[in-house]
Amino acid sequence: MAKIQSSKSIEKIAKRLKNKGKRIVFTNGCFDIIHPGHIKILNVAKKKGDVLIVGLNSDESVRRIKGKSRPILNAISRAQVLAALAVVDYVVIFGEDTPEKLIKLIRPDYLVKGGDWQLDKIVGRQYVKKVCRVKLYPGHSTSLIIKKIVQHNSL
Questions:
Q1: Measured in whole angstroms, how far is the alpha carbon of residue 55 from the centre of its chain?
Q2: Boundaries of domain holding 115
Q3: Least confident segment among 49-63, 91-105, 127-141
Q4: HSE value, Cβ hemisphere, 13 Å, CA-based, for 10
Q5: pLDDT digits (tens, 9 = 90+) for 55-90
Q6: Phi first, then psi: what are they for 132, rounded to 5°?
Q7: Cβ atoms within 10 Å of 10's Cβ, excluding its own
Q8: How far apart are CA 72 and CA 120, in angstroms?
C-alpha cells in the first residue's frame, strides 16, 4: 500500500489499524529540508507506537506560516522524501495552517511535537490520549540551513 495518502483514505486506514489494536502516532510539520532535528522527532515518534502518520503542510500553508520564499521543495517532493524514510508509515498533505482537522479524523494515540511547542499551544491535543514533546536537536533547523546557503552563495 502506498505511503502517501489522502485525508479520506487515512481516516479509513486509521480505523482499520485501531480495530487491529495498533497504536497510532501522529506528528506534523513543513519538513522543507530534512535535517537531523526532523529525524530525531520522527525516530522518537515511531518508538511511541506501531504506526507513524506524518501530517505535511501543503505549499500554500507553508507560505502562510513561513513566508513567500518557502517552501524550498514542493509538497509532493517533501512527501516523497518523508515516505522514503523507514520510520514513516504514512504521509498526508493538509492545506490548513494547523493539522487539527486531520488529527480529529485520525484520533491517534500519541501526538508528537518538538520541545519548542508549549503544551497548551499544541493543536489537536484534545483528540489524543497523550502528547509527547521531543527536546530539539540544537543548531538544526531549516531556517539555519537556508541562512548558511545564502551566506555561502554571497561569498
A1: 4
A2: 4-153
A3: 127-141
A4: 27
A5: 999 999 999 999 999 999 999 999 999 999 999 999
A6: -120, 130
A7: 22
A8: 30
